[in-house]
Amino acid sequence: MPSLELDDIQGTVLRRRPDDYQGAYLLYRIDDPAAAKRSLREVLPKITSAADWELPRPFTLNVAFTYRGLARLGVPQESLASFSEEFRAGMAARKEVLGDLGANDPSSWNPPLGGPDVHIGVMIIARSPAELREPVETAGRLAGVSLVYRLDVGVPVTGREHFGFRDGISSPHLLGSTCEPLPGQDSVQPGEFLFGYPDESGAPPKGPVPDALGRNGCYLAFRQMHADVAAFRRFLRDTARSPEDEELIAAKIVGRWRSGAPLALTPDHDDPELGADPMRNNDFHYQDDPQGLRVPRGAHIRRANPRDGLADTVVETRIHRVLRRGAAYGPVLPDGVLEDDGAERGIIFVFLGASLSRQFEFVQQVWLNDGDFAGLGAERDPLVGDNGGTGSHTIPARPVRRRLTGLPRFVTVRGGEYCFLPGLAALEWLTALPDPAGAPAATPHSPNPEDDR
Asked: Where is the region Disordered (predicted)?
């Protein structure tokens, strides 16, 4: 069993946020690298490690950096070159791989996302709005930087994400993380998600150098994703035969009923008690459902985590696991409303891992935006895929399968960034770097992110 250095690992890697939460995602541009490093040094005691996450803390605070941010702080060229190609390029430049085309194209992203002005990311989660005030004020005291983005998040009044589903049920368990895995939760080597530890191959993954910078760090992919709840409701109404059928279709799209109860365990009706039970709601497999009669092979959760459903193929699912964090933002669309009210609502998706290409980008490109791996041809993820009115989703059934057509785009990418989340010792190393000679001033954001690459 690997021994993890919990006091050096930023807490969000190993610990999940509470079910009841308020939070803020803050992005900064570095204007004065020397002043920024001095003020970051003062914030270090406030950053939450995995060791003190479970204490009765009123808030958690974690800090990450983009490639441009690390360069602005004076990270040596040799170290910058040791980061992965996709991290150095940035998320917007990877749009072809990620399928960020059409309405999802970076040219339509909310500024400054995808542009040159995002250098530091601060993630804060608290138990209440009152307890959020202190860490936001702490982050606001950072010197030498300008706040270029803020998005407040919080649990919706329904306790579920905006499409109405209970969220955050399934997640891999890191060996050595002290907590016990829940039934159905697969355990993976920590090196799949953290530098400095063995991954599933038995060797540590190649990370940034020197070790003082890379150890206990990981990559972080941040995406703001707008949810078109009205379009989802209209599609269900126009497709279903009855209100009960609406719920069944919604479950067949996601792979779970709205309560969180998995179709794999209760394929014919919802079971809220099962959905709320962490000892049962994730304890299932797909190998005994090869045709997808219970959980369609193209359902969202089966795509994002095929479990043992690909056991007879050459794909090793354990090396493509995604450690997901995130939160909801925006007001809830009232029940029964079928027309969009113009409000911005959705989720902040945060991926954490040791490989952006093998984990985040692979899942996005192969499992979510394609169907060949599951024998579904050009079908995409019915919930988060880039469908745009032409998508389809096959629901196997006896005697006749059901095929949903004309799937609209339910989720639109508003922007995103690739970041590096260092260990706490690496944060100290970063703040002690000498200032780069003749550090250029930060440039203003261009309206078109493509102009900045």
From this structure: 180-210
Does residue 254 come out as left (phi exceeding 0), alpha (psi in the -120 to 50 range) or beta? Answer: alpha
Residue 142 dihedral angles phi and psi, to the nearest 5°: -60, 130
Within 10 angstroms of residue 264's Cβ, the number of other Cβ atoms is 22
CA dihedral 323, 172, 174, 215 (to 10 degrees): -20
Copy the structure tokens of residue 204.
């540590």
């706490």: which residue's tokens?
Answer: 424
**Position 448 pLDDT exceeds 60:** no
Give the integer Cα–Cα distance in Å for 401 and 379. Answer: 15
Could you tell me the pTM of the whole model? 0.93
DSSP label at residue 387 = -
For the record, the structure tokens of 184 come out as 């159905």
Q: Does pLDDT of 441 surpass 70? A: no
The alpha carbon of residue 294 and the mean position of all alpha carbons in its chain are separated, in whole angstroms, by 27
Length in residues, the chain: 453
What is the distance between the alpha carbons of residues 359 and 265, in angstroms, rounded to a whole number? 27
Q: How far apart are CA 247 and CA 258, in angstroms?
A: 8
The CA distance from 228 to 216, in Å, is 37
Contact 374/297 with Cβ under 8 angstroms? yes
Q: What is the pLDDT of residue 453?
A: 32
Six-digit token string for 434: 């000498």
Distance CA 96, CA 89 (A): 13
170: left (phi over 0), alpha (psi -120 to 50) or beta: beta
8 A C-beta contact, residue 265 and residue 184: no
Q: Which two tokens stand for residue 210?
A: 């020197």
263: closest CA among 407, 129, 396, 128? 396
- When pLDDT is cut at 50, 70 and 90, the band that residue 313 belongs to is confident
Euclidean distance between CA atoms 10 and 22, whole angstroms: 19
First to last CA, the chain: 44
Q: How confident is the model at residue 52 (pLDDT cuts 50, 70, 90)?
A: confident
Average pLDDT, integer, range 286-292: 95
CA distance 337 to 360: 34
Taking residues 23-27, what's their average pLDDT?
97
Q: 168 — alpha (psi -120 to 50), left (phi > 0) or beta?
A: left
9 SS3 class: coil
Q: What pLDDT, on the 0 to 100 scale, is given for residue 88? A: 98
CA distances from 154 to 57, 158, 274 (A): 17, 11, 25
Mean of pLDDT over the chain = 92
In which band, very low, low, confident or very high, does the pLDDT at 437 lie, cut at 50, 70 and 90? low
Amino acid at 330: G
